[in-house]
Amino acid sequence: MIRLEGVGKAFDGQPVLRDISFTVPAGGTLGLIGAGGAGKSLVLKILCGLVRPDAGRVWLDDTELGPLSERELMDVRGRIGMIFQNYALFDYLTVAENIGFPLARMQRPADAIAARVQTRLDQVHLPDIGPRYPRELSGGMKKRVCLARATVHDPPIMLCDDPTAGLDPVTTNRIFRLLKDLQAQNDATAIIVSHETGYLRPICDAIALLDRGRLVFAGPTAEAVEHPEVRAFMEGEPP
Amino acid sequence: MTAVARLGGAVLDLCRVVGALTLFCGSVLRALIPPRADRVETWRALHRVGVRSLPIVIVTAFFAGGIAAIQVSTYVTKFRAYEAVGWGFGFVTFRELGPLLVGLMFSGRVGAHNTAELGTMKVTEQIDALRILAIDPIHFLVLPRIIAMLVMMTLLNVIGDVFALAGGMITAYAMVGVDPYVFWNSFTEYVMLIDFVNGLIKAAAFGLAIGVVSCSFGLDVRGGAPGVGRAVNGGVVVSAVGIFVLDYLITAVMQ
């Protein structure tokens, strides 16, 4: 379960998020949409404790993040799989080392790591690229590797920051299907930030729309498509 | 008014740099209790910092030795004090010229690379990815690099001293005609262990300073690729200033 209650954040006195509240039930998927600069990525960073909010409370399952120290937050983050907008793959590690990195940090045996990495590579349809380096991959391949790394330790919470930015429609479709499959496999609670509203609708139970730091709507997908501002955003009309 | 505003801005910038470095040193010191530097990353950093810097340190040290020998030779020829050339060379090179030049080269080569690497990791969210994977960047990235720079700068200074000695000896023979045997005798007789240790202490201090400054500037990058460029530039400048300030202080204390 993911829950935000009255979350606010300002940088240099400028409010970037104001009074954000929504809940994603365990195993649910929320699509977080909004124009660039609306604060979507910031919401994800607050959820994984990379940024502390100025106001409000945040829960991941039964854990409230606010009172936790940085060391305690580290433990909570171990339950999160995050896909970054800019891939965030480690340049100096091979693809296989990148994917196996979370497991290596958990000190799992090398052969178990290798087997799990190969399983994930097969699942993202990139079975032979383990020895290659991220710089040798296309954008779509990097996204899939990022997806494999984010889910290799079966995290119960998945946060995806624009996982299909800059990708062609075929790859976009493939990434969203993979996301849904891996989420279903782990029964994870997920938030997906994306502008690809057409792809989001079929895989999300709920949609939330942010506009300049304010939550315009948060509710079931069926209701979202009826909401005038959400519909206007999905149809590309200016606010 | 503009001049006052500029002066005020420069003072504020200086305070910002000093403040950021102080806070960064605090977090590094906290990470040392108990010491938790990542072992694999530390070996990797030692290899990268040491092996890749070796050629440039050898070249720098060889010519630094040669330069010292040429400078000393001017007076050696004038006063016909050929037996003093090894001492003069050793005193200048081991105490001052060697660590200073190797430090500046090290800062330009390793420090700048380190700042650029950490800065790029910051702007491409790799640092955030580490934190999401429950890894503290200070333990995983910063401590191994600082340890590597401290250790390798000290070791490279020793290697540099050997090549500086060779450079000095060859130059003294080629340009002033000082017999290498005379050079060596003068060197071993008058250059004390303290001269060598003095250089080592300076090298270690410079390595530590370059490590702290380059990591701090790298992790403090803001504003994408241009921010990385600014951080590299700032890191090299602050490291160079730090090297000269430390050199002054250590020289004053150990005089």
Describe this structure in words.
The complex is a heterodimer of chains A (239) and B (255). With 239 residues, chain A is of the alpha/beta class. Chain A has helices spanning 40-47, 70-77, 95-105, 110-123, 139-151, 169-186, 197-203, 221-224, 228-234; strands at residues 2-11, 14-24, 29-34, 55-60, 63-64, 80-83, 157-161, 189-193, 206-211, 214-220. Chain A has 2 domains: 22-51 and 66-79 and 157-239, P-loop containing nucleotide triphosphate hydrolases (Rossmann fold); 90-154, no CATH class. In chain A, strand 7, helix 6 (169-186) and strand 8 (189-193) form a beta-alpha-beta unit. The longest helix of chain A is centred in the last third of the chain and has 18 residues, at 169-186. The mean pLDDT of chain A is 88. Chain B has one domain. Helices cover 89% and strands 0% of the residues of chain B. The longest helix of chain B has 41 residues, at 39-79. The chains are: A alpha/beta (239), B mainly alpha (255). Chains A and B meet through helix 2 and helix 3 of A and helix 3 and helix 4 of B.
Specify the CATH class of the largest domain in chain A.
Alpha Beta
Largest interface by Cβ-Cβ < 8 Å = A-B, 21 and 14 residues
Query: Which regions of chain B contain 5 or more consecutive residues with pLDDT less than 50?
Result: none
Count of spatially separate domains of chain A: 2
Assembly category: heterodimer
C-alpha end-to-end distance of chain A: 31 Å
The portion of residues forming beta strands of chain A comes to: 25-35%
Estimate the global geometry of chain A from the Cα principal axes.
globular
Number of domains of chain B: 1
- Average pLDDT of chain A, rounded to a whole number, is 88
Query: So how many helices of chain A?
Result: 9
CATH fold-type name of the largest domain in chain A: Rossmann fold
Report strand order across the widest sheet of chain A. 6-7-8-3-9-10
